[in-house]
Specification:
6 helices, 82% helix, mainly alpha
C-alpha cells in the first residue's frame, strides 16, 4: 500500500485498530496473571482491558457517525472470508459488553466460582472480537 493510500485512512479507523490490539494484549496478560495466581495483577489488567474496550466503543461509534459505511472492495474468495469474519465478529461483539459487565459484577460480589465459569466463556469471545476487529481493519484497508 502506498503512503498516500495509508494517509487516506481515517485516523479513528486506525485508532480503533490500535485500541483493539491493546485490548487483546491486556486480555492475554490478564489470563496469564490469573493462571499464575496473581489475582491483583489480573484485576488491574482486566479493568484496563475493559476501559480500553469502552474507549474503543466510543471511538467506533464516533467513527461510524462521521464516516458511515466503508465498503469492502476485495473480490473473489477473500470476499467470502471477509464477510464470514465480519458476521461472526458482529454477532459476538454485541455480547461482549454484557459478558464483561457480568464478570465485573460477579467479581465485585465475590462470587468467584460463577466468575470463573463465566470467564471460560467470556475470555475467548472477548479475545476473538478484539483480534478479528484488527483483522477486519487490515482486510478492509488492504493491508493484508
Amino acid at each position: 500500500m502506498t503512503l498516500p493510500a495509508l494517509l487516506a485512512i481515517h485516523p479513528l479507523a486506525t485508532t480503533n485498530a490500535v485500541l483493539n490490539t491493546i485490548a487483546t494484549l491486556l486480555l492475554v496478560a490478564g489470563w496469564v496473571f490469573i493462571r499464575r495466581g496473581q489475582w491483583q495483577a489480573h484485576r488491574a489488567t482486566m479493568i484496563a482491558a475493559f476501559a480500553v474496550s469502552a474507549i474503543f466503543l466510543a471511538c467506533y461509534l464516533t467513527y461510524h457517525y462521521l464516516v458511515g459505511h466503508v465498503p469492502f472492495t476485495g473480490q473473489g474468495p477473500i470476499r467470502i472470508v471477509y464477510f464470514t469474519i465480519l458476521f461472526s465478529h458482529i454477532l459476538l461483539a454485541v455480547t461482549v459488553p454484557v459478558l464483561a459487565i457480568s464478570m465485573f459484577v460477579l467479581a465485585y460480589r465475590g462470587r468467584w466460582e460463577a466468575h470463573r465459569r463465566l470467564g471460560r466463556v467470556t475470555m475467548p469471545i472477548w479475545l476473538y472480537v478484539s483480534v478479528t476487529g484488527v483483522v477486519i481493519y487490515l482486510m478492509l484497508y488492504g493491508l493484508v
